[in-house]
Amino acid sequence: MQTARDIQKWEIQPLGPFLSKSIGTSISPWIVTMDALAPFVTANPVQFPEVAQYLRHTDRFNFDIKLQVELHGEEMREPHVISNSNFKHMYWTMKQQLTHHTSNGCNLRPGDLLGSGTISGPTKDSRGCMMELSWKGTDPIDCGNGVKRTFLRDGDRVTLKGHCDNGEFRVGFGECTGKLLPAIDYFSK
Fold first, then answer.
1. Is the Cβ–Cβ distance between 3 and 24 less than 8 Å?
2. From CA 152, how far away is CA 3, in angstroms rounded?
3. pTM for this predicted structure
4. By the number of CB atoms within 10 A of the CB, which of 41, 57, 98, 183 ranks highest?
5. Cα dist. 119→23, 83, 123, 125, 162 in Å?
6. Average pLDDT by consecutive 10-residue portion of the chain (189 residues)?
């Protein structure tokens, strides 16, 4: 999911990120079932401090999903890989996220879409968003041929790729590409 981090940074206190999650969102056309993910289950993350009782579970419900993000700016000849991460680095399991989301009585129905949030790994190249990758804009990302970025620009295309591979089975998630379009100026007319 691509989000407007500048809006997210502004609204984080006191509401938490909300409006920023509705900007520049791209959704892959592929659906991968839980049965297809079963061969790629991995240990749940170590959570410290211990989470609330209603979020605790001992069954393994974390998955080894390899993720890659490419940036293709209008001035770039070809896409540049800016992040390689893995879903297994998530702090919360999908089961915990679903449980917490519904803990206040929020109804869910088949077909509802839930996003995991930013998926960042332990290394610099596995950071999950431009703000982290560029360290809040202080460390530009080198995209080659003199192109450097700290944040996305109008016209940029971002492609997300994901797959699972345990040496015996491979499950692909397809590609998900979105293009950042300029904002429409409704007020200057």
1. yes
2. 10
3. 0.85
4. 41
5. 18, 10, 12, 12, 12
6. 53 54 70 94 94 94 97 96 97 92 89 85 94 93 95 94 96 92 85
